[in-house]
């Protein structure tokens, strides 16, 4: 079921006929770029707080992108031009599930954006996929903390993988690297595969902020300083192409990056 306006969409089991498994959640999507919708279009329950929250998240996003640019050896404003657009808020409501063993709250996926910043309540249920080598050691780059709690590699060729609970930390935000940042960083940063498990307790409520620009491209400006000492691992693409590919395949558990690898 869906209810749409120009800037706001409500979804109930939005990908029921696309995903291999049903998602036990309702979603409210608010487009925030180029600006928030008029106050009368925003639900009363979040009408007063939404503008302030968006401003604070935009400031946080710029700070994170400055740090990530410096971590890549670039000047602090390098990624901001393409990535510092808070395009969308997604509020997720996960009702208690009478049979949580039969479905997930959100199936396995990575985010098709530069960054995703998540605020969640105390119920929990978020998990990340942790890849391990044959000896059982974690296959993570210790210098790349892509998730506040876990950093994981979505290379399907690794020998084993395990789902790890992301503990809820009161007052903390979860920051996920998205697929497009993995592309433009030439695998220096890894997007994180994650899911939400259904639970008999709840409801669980979360708010996700997605930083991306539909016209952003893996341009020479972004890639050249990073691949100067190596080879590009992905073909040129745009954010719009990546989003279209993700929407077409749905939340099927596959990586959106495989068809872009060189």
Automatic annotation (TrEMBL):
<feature type="region of interest" description="Disordered">
    <location>
        <begin position="137"/>
        <end position="159"/>
    </location>
</feature>
<dbReference type="InterPro" id="IPR044861">
    <property type="entry name" value="IPNS-like_FE2OG_OXY"/>
</dbReference>
<keyword id="KW-0479">Metal-binding</keyword>
<comment type="similarity">
    <text>Belongs to the iron/ascorbate-dependent oxidoreductase family.</text>
</comment>
<dbReference type="InterPro" id="IPR027443">
    <property type="entry name" value="IPNS-like_sf"/>
</dbReference>
<dbReference type="Pfam" id="PF03171">
    <property type="entry name" value="2OG-FeII_Oxy"/>
</dbReference>
<protein>
    <recommendedName>
        <fullName>Fe2OG dioxygenase domain-containing protein</fullName>
    </recommendedName>
</protein>
<keyword id="KW-0560">Oxidoreductase</keyword>
<keyword id="KW-0408">Iron</keyword>
<feature type="compositionally biased region" description="Low complexity">
    <location>
        <begin position="139"/>
        <end position="157"/>
    </location>
</feature>
<dbReference type="InterPro" id="IPR005123">
    <property type="entry name" value="Oxoglu/Fe-dep_dioxygenase_dom"/>
</dbReference>
<dbReference type="GO" id="GO:0046872">
    <property type="term" value="F:metal ion binding"/>
</dbReference>
<dbReference type="GO" id="GO:0051213">
    <property type="term" value="F:dioxygenase activity"/>
</dbReference>
<feature type="domain" description="Fe2OG dioxygenase">
    <location>
        <begin position="85"/>
        <end position="215"/>
    </location>
</feature>
